[in-house]
């Protein structure tokens, strides 16, 4: 059995963002990066399945991006992945979901993966389109927003998170694509021995031009701070005094109260 886990390296949400010189993307100077949170659930599920099946499945961890994404791949390997694939693309952040999915599908098509795991969405784009598009391009069965996972005899049984707290059960014959949601599992922390082992595992580097055989399309992403508009008033003191002042302001300066 062969499993592919697709991960993305995203800016740490605790970082301070600022537009680059062109204003269309964030400046990476002093910006911290991490593995996309949803993708960590995908890595963990792949490793859990590998353990369930006695270590027989081979888990490949793939990421698209500049040289820095090797750090994210190494984390996936230290969590239990067997080998890594780095699709080298310094302009990955400018590609849309269709292009990213096309790259992944072009690689996967020749490898014969039984199961492809992705995160539900990336924390920086949040489109939730890559996993389902990969499934469409490969003609694989697909289940999204998965919070429960079981595998037996070539069949994947998943629980999907639906609206209003309702969950649906879906059974898929492999090959299949599954996108992983918060609550599916608890991602493990890599141990020091496994971190050291990950340094020796294979990371294959593939130039993006070998996989993306279509005219380059660039998604123009605006990243600009909102313009300052007016000022704010902070009300302090006892609560009753604040209420009285607020009512007075609403009467004098707005049409809310008359």
Automatic annotation (TrEMBL):
Name this protein carries in UniProt: Electron transfer flavoprotein subunit beta
Keywords from the named record: Electron transport, Transport
Similarity field: Belongs to the ETF beta-subunit/FixA family.
SUPFAM superfamilies per the UniProt record, alphabetical: Adenine nucleotide alpha hydrolases-like
Domain Electron transfer flavoprotein alpha/beta-subunit N-terminal: 23-215
Molecular function via GO: electron transfer activity
SMART domains linked: ETF
Pfam families from the UniProt entry: ETF
Keyword Transport: yes
CDD domains linked to this entry: ETF_beta (cd01714)
Keyword Electron transport listed: yes
């Amino acid at each position: 059995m062969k499993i592919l886990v697709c991960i993305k390296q995203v800016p740490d949400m605790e970082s301070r963002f600022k537009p680059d010189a062109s204003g269309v993307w964030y400046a990476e100077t002093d910006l911290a990066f991490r593995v996309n949170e949803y993708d960590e659930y995908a890595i963990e599920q792949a490793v859990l399945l590998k353990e369930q099946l006695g270590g027989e499945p081979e888990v490949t961890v793939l990421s698209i991006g500049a040289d820095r994404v090797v750090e994210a791949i190494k984390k996936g390997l230290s969590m239990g992945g067997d080998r890594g694939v780095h699709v080298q693309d310094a302009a990955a952040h400018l590609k849309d979901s269709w292009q990213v999915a096309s790259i992944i599908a072009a690689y996967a098509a020749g490898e014969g993966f039984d199961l492809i795991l992705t995160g539900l969405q990336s924390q920086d784009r949040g489109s939730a389109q890559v996993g389902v598009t990969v499934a469409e391009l490969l003609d694989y069965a697909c289940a999204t927003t998965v919070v429960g996972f079981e595998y037996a005899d070539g069949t994947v049984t998943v629980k999907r998170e639906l609206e209003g707290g309702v969950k649906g059960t879906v059974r898929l014959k492999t090959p299949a694509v599954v996108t992983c949601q918060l609550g599916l599992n608890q991602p493990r922390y890599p141990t020091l021995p496994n971190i050291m082992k990950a340094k020796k595992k294979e990371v294959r580097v593939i130039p993006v031009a070998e996989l993306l055989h279509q005219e380059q399309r660039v998604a123009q992403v605006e990243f600009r701070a909102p313009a300052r508009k007016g000022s704010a008033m902070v009300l302090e003191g006892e609560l009753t005094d604040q209420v009285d002042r607020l009512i007075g302001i609403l009467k004098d300066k707005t049409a809310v109260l008359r």
